[in-house]
Amino acid sequence: MTSTQTSTATGKFMNSAQLLEHWQGHRNLTRRVIEAFPEKDLFEFSLAGMRTFAKMAVELISIGGPALRGIVENKTDALDEEAFVPSTKEELLAKWDEETVVIHDYFNRIPEERFQESFNLFGQYEFPVYQNIMYFIDNEIHHRGQGYVYLRALGIEPPFFWERFAV
Amino acid sequence: MTSTQTSTATGKFMNSAQLLEHWQGHRNLTRRVIEAFPEKDLFEFSLAGMRTFAKMAVELISIGGPALRGIVENKTDALDEEAFVPSTKEELLAKWDEETVVIHDYFNRIPEERFQESFNLFGQYEFPVYQNIMYFIDNEIHHRGQGYVYLRALGIEPPFFWERFAV
């Protein structure tokens, strides 16, 4: 490689507004996956001894908004997956929508330079902030992919993976 | 929000070298998921009428390297998922490793400004280059999450999701 080609890889890939839109697009798709489950199956169905999709969705809810609050407020409170225990799909979706606003607001309060700074997220995950945020998105896609298998096993066609902001 | 807070969201989130490392970390994990399947199950096992994990891995192979070649060489040849038909795990892993090098080399040949430019990938997916590349990674995490369900259904413990470059 020439030095010109090498220098390329240190340049900007995407900006933070684009990353936030990307994340919220994924969250919109995950919301539609939650909706696609029959109420009973959302809370009871699983494969291979894994968690129900409701449990996975609660995990996602317990990460995104609380993590961004921690980053913005420099707090290292532990991750708490027991703070929210929904008993209906409606309750789960309502909380999901609340967190959509929290994520939007708190993400936009992170000063640009902090994305590259290290932070001890939840008092446990000491990584650059951008890596922690990428992890939230990766983790959501990972579990949602598992939700797709659950839906197919239930004979339900999942939403198109590539449609992010469709309603 | 104040104007200072709003301006934050247009700043740099991560650079392209970090994105490439992130992607190759995911590819390293996917490689270990392929390895975790017994040879026969890799090519024959599936749940809910879905594809085998070998088919999913071939899809991933048919996207990453060929897409980057298309972007760098400004070619819009169609996606071809039939070009590589492995019959053994060894063959699949060898091709995976070849593509690791292709992805490294071609990603580093993309000039920084092109990530924000639109390109008609495979003559079919007209999006900014950064969005197409994010999609490759998302798609890999999505299908690998499904592979995790297959492994668990087979009674096999998958690799840790958060270990990317472990061997």
TrEMBL record, chains A, B:
Q: Which family does it belong to?
A: Belongs to the DinB family.
| UniProt name for this protein | Damage-inducible protein DinB
Recorded hits in SUPFAM superfamilies, A to Z, give:
DinB/YfiT-like putative metalloenzymes
- Positions of transmembrane segments: none
Which species expresses this protein natively? Chryseobacterium camelliae
State if rRNA processing is listed as a keyword. Answer: no
Q: Which InterPro entries match?
A: DinB (IPR007837), DinB/YfiT-like (IPR034660)
Which Pfam families does the UniProt entry name for this protein?
A: DinB
| Kinase listed as a keyword | no
Origin: domain of life: Bacteria
- Identify the keywords attached in UniProt to this record, alphabetized: Metal-binding
